[in-house]
């Protein structure tokens, strides 16, 4: 089994409150894993995956490397192989929605401006965002912002995606459509969600519950 | 017992503060290193410079500041001449007014005032914009996607500020010379031809290089300091004004310190 993400006995980030019980799980290549939890825990979990922080105990491995031990340029190179949509969405306020997708493609993925524009237009089209392309994030409704954040992550066309509470304000039908797009385009996905409904379960290969009682396979 | 505990708490706090300051200094050095590396890689990597941000920075920092710089330069030029005139008449050296202006304004006050205006206008804008981006999670989101914030957000501001302050310093000097010309004509009744001749004797082509270099050093340093202050803001709205204050205060100290270094070095060089 080829494991893409491996958490072994991790108890949170250094210089932050520890999780009560250590967390261990593995995400094999080609699967979608869903973790149902709260934002206070999902944010550090994804930060650990992206190498923004050091685990206080245990070991985090992503694509075979420990992200936190990497130098700045190596960490950046690792992140360039991951599509991510975190909370808060982090759409750049002084750029239009279109530029919010084009800029990371040019600066991180290394596409030429023409290629980035072509890919952005295609992404905006399939995500039904074309009518908002010249709008700045502050003027976008919540569900459009969330779709735009997902679009920015998807446009990079990376084999691994990390999503933090995606599409929370988007209706069930559209969520289903967008997730099937993610599933088709992305080899491996790790989603941390605070959603109560079971719409995301339809796409998941494994669902975990993570609350005060610990980290366990969902019933 | 209580005294011992208080002493230990004090020592712990002092140690924590010293460690914090040390970490800050280390982080600042690392940040300057990243900026230098990004600038050095520019010739190979020009495609990865945000030209739009660079033009916006020059427009805001240089072009939009021209009216206020012009007003200030006219006033400073006239004021320096008015003050110098009284002394010059006393010592019978009225014809040296142009040279006084060249020394005081062109080499010293021009770049200094241009930098102060830029710190007040653009330094605050840079620090608050980047601190807001930090607080709103924009910087983290871009880093998560593998974008280098120094390349995207800092580099255009550094280059834009360096170009802007260098040009504004020249502009300030040109306007101040004009203000001085009017003042010498009205106060000292010195014909404009004599004033310009006196100015020509006081200036050399090296002064243009000096003014441009000083301006670029002021602009570059100001932008680095304000970007650093903005990007290291804590993720809370209260951190935005704190970052701005910190950036502006350090940038002001930097500008005066660099000005002093330039002047002392030049004095030692020419003596």
The pair of chains with the biggest contact is:
A-B, 31 and 22 residues
Radius of gyration of chain B: 23 Å
Shape of chain B: globular
Q: Cα-atom Rg of chain A, whole angstroms?
A: 17 Å
Going across the biggest sheet of chain A, name each strand in turn: 5-6-7-3-8-9
Q: What are its keywords?
A:
heterodimer; A: 219 residues; alpha/beta; Rossmann fold; six-stranded mixed beta sheet; three-stranded antiparallel beta sheet; 6 helices; globular; B: 271 residues; mainly alpha; 2 domains; 9 helices; 86% helix; 0% strand
Structural summary, described in words:
The complex is a heterodimer of chains A (219) and B (271). Chain A has helices spanning 39-50, 72-79, 97-109, 113-126, 142-155, 172-185; strands spanning 3-10, 23-28, 32-36, 59-62, 82-85, 160-164, 188-193, 206-211, 214-217. Chain A is an alpha/beta fold. In chain A, the strands form 2 sheets. A 6-stranded mixed beta sheet of chain A has the order 5-6-7-3-8-9, with helices on both faces. A 3-stranded antiparallel beta sheet of chain A has the order 2-1-4, covered by helices on one side. In chain A, helix 3 (97-109) packs across helix 4 (113-126) and helix 3 (97-109) runs parallel beside helix 5 (142-155). Chain B is mainly α and 271 residues long. Chain B has 2 domains: 1-40; 50-270, no CATH class. Chain B contains 9 helices and no strands. The longest helix of chain B is centred in the middle third of the chain and has 40 residues, at 149-188. The N and C termini of chain B lie far apart (63 Å). The interface between A and B is medium-sized, with 31 and 22 residues.
Short description:
The complex is a heterodimer of chains A (219) and B (271). Chain A has 219 residues and is of the alpha/beta class.
């Amino acid at each position: 089994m080829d494991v893409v993400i491996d958490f072994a006995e991790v108890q949170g980030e250094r210089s932050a409150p520890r999780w009560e019980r250590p967390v261990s799980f593995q995400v094999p290549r080609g699967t979608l894993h869903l973790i149902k939890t709260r934002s206070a825990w999902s944010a550090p979990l994804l930060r650990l995956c992206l190498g923004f922080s050091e685990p206080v105990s245990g070991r985090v491995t992503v694509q075979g490397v420990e992200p936190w031990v990497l130098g700045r340029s190596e960490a950046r190179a690792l992140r360039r192989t991951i599509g991510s949509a975190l909370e808060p969405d982090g759409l750049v306020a002084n750029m239009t929605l279109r530029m919010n997708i084009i800029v990371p493609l040019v600066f991180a993925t290394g596409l030429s401006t023409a290629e980035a524009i072509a890919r952005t237009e295609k992404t905006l089209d399939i995500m039904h965002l074309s009518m908002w392309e010249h709008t700045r994030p502050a003027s976008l409704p919540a569900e459009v912002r969330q779709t735009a954040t997902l679009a920015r992550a998807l446009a990079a066309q990376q084999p691994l995606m990390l999503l933090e509470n995606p599409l929370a304000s988007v209706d069930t039908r559209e969520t289903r459509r967008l997730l099937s797009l993610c599933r088709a385009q992305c080899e491996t996905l790790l989603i941390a969600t605070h959603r109560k409904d079971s719409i995301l379960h339809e796409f998941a290969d494994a669902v975990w519950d993570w609350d005060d009682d610990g980290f366990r396979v969902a019933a | 017992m209580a005294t011992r505990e208080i002493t230990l708490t004090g020592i712990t706090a002092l140690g924590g503060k010293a460690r914090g300051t040390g970490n800050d200094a280390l982080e600042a050095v690392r940040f300057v290193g990243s900026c230098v590396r990004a600038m050095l890689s520019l010739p190979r990597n020009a495609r990865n410079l945000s030209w739009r941000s660079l033009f916006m920075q020059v427009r805001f920092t240089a072009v939009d500041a021209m009216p206020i710089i012009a007003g200030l330069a006219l006033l400073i030029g006239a004021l320096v001449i008015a003050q110098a005139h009284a002394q010059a008449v006393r010592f019978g050296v009225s014809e040296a007014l142009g040279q006084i202006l060249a020394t005081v304004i062109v080499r010293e006050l021009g770049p200094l005032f241009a930098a102060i205006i830029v710190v007040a206008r653009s330094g605050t804008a840079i620090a608050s914009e980047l601190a807001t981006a930090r607080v709103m999670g924009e910087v983290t989101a871009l880093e998560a996607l593998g974008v280098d914030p120094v390349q995207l957000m800092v580099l255009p501001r550094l280059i834009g500020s360096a170009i802007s302050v260098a040009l504004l310093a020249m502009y300030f000097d040109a306007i101040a010379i004009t203000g001085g010309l009017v003042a010498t004509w009205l106060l000292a009744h010195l014909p404009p031809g004599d004033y310009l001749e006196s100015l020509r004797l006081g200036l050399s082509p090296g002064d243009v290089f000096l003014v441009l270099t000083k301006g670029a050093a002021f602009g570059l340093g100001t932008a680095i300091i304000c970007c650093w202050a903005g990007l290291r803001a804590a993720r809370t709205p209260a951190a935005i004004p704190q970052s701005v204050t910190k950036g502006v205060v350090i940038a002001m100290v930097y500008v005066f310190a660099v000005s002093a270094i330039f002047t002392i070095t030049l004095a030692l060089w020419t003596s």
